[in-house]
Amino acid sequence: MTVRSAPRALAAATTALLALGGVAACSDGGAGAGSGRVDVVAAFYPLQFLAERIGGDAVKVSNLAKPGAEPHDLELNPRQVGQVVDAELIVYLAGFQPAVDEAVAQNGGDRAFDVATVEPLRDAAAGGHEHDGEAGHEETGGKDPHVWLDPTRLATIGDRLAERLGRTDPDHAADYTARARSLRADMTALDTAYAQGLKTCQRREIVASHTAFGYLAARYQLEQVGITGLTPDSEPSPQRLAAVAKEAREHRATTIFFETLVSPKVAETVAREVGARTAVLDPIEGPPADGDYLSAMRANLQTLRTALDCS
Q1: Domain around 250
Q2: Which of 42, 52, 120, 153 could make an SS bond with 47 (beta carbons 3.0 to 4.6 A apart)?
Q3: pLDDT > 90? residue 69
Q4: Is residue 54 part of a domain?
């Protein structure tokens, strides 16, 4: 699993763990303490969305990643480590957030649910041109964590989360299962909309600043050209920029995509070079400004249809 080099995040987690003794005494218990609800900690937004949809009124969900912050770079403060300690269930994706991995290793025990274990993850590509699931020209040697961008995989993770919640809270197990079925129906409808909406397009290449869309590309027979790899705020070399510009011209790309939580400057540089426009393609790592995961995915579909000239 690819893990960003994040010594600050690891140091912050260690500091928080050392400070935990000082905050434990003033901890108010878990977020669900005294409410009769299951206290769930989600590591970042898509997992929060899943836990809230499947848990419903029976759970209280806390998101460790703050809105507007890049979740890769999450640094845990003592209070957040306290949330991990107090939670009845911790939903996270191993390898995506080093500080969360550290806190879970120290305090998670059998309360941790790693969604990366539900289905095999795709091999990660640092950048380059991907064809139908191939890893790309530059290998990272790890795994791509952006599994939630394939709605069929997210539905399966939802099924397993319902089972895990049912073991934690047997009295509501049937409710969790029913809500997971409802979520799967929504994911199936979304999958159908993508398959039909992207079936007939003039182009099938996504030129993006961040190589986050491998699952989406593989699912819907698109090709991803990443300016940078899995680290969204890394600086590409001049050679990499030139190579991406060359590929963009070859495929007559009219749009270079950037994401919501990092600077658009790299995408704008390539767009100027090839005479293309820029647009947001949201990897949905953080909560959308409006709506939820489903509305953000629908907006992404419309953005792709426009950029790829789909009929």
Answers
A1: 200-307
A2: 42
A3: no
A4: yes
Taking only Cα atoms into account, the Rg of the chain, rounded to an integer number of angstroms, comes to: 20
Residues 173 and 208 in one domain: no
* Residue 255 · residue 277 · CB < 8 Å: yes
Residue 127 Cα distances to 22, 65, 104, 131, angstroms: 44, 26, 30, 12
For residue 124, the model assigns a pLDDT of 81
**205 and 225 in contact (C-beta within 8 Å)?**
yes
- Is the domain of 220 the same as that of 303? yes
Can you read off the two tokens belonging to residue 153?
């995989």
Q: Is residue 208 part of a domain?
A: yes
Most confident option among 65-79, 164-178, 240-254: 164-178
110 with 230, same domain: the answer is no
**What's the helix, strand, coil split of the chain in %, to 5?**
50, 15, 35
* Residue 234 banded pLDDT, cuts 50, 70, 90: low
Q: Which helix (H) or strand (E) holds 269?
A: helix 265-274
Q: How many distinct structural domains can be found in the chain? A: 2
Q: Which residue has the higher pLDDT, 239 or 147?
A: 147
Q: Which amino acid is at 277?
A: R
Does 185 lie in the same domain as 88?
Answer: yes
Q: Is residue 103 part of a domain?
A: yes
What are the strands of the beta sheet with 38-42, ordered from one edge?
Answer: 59-63, 38-42, 89-92, 112-114
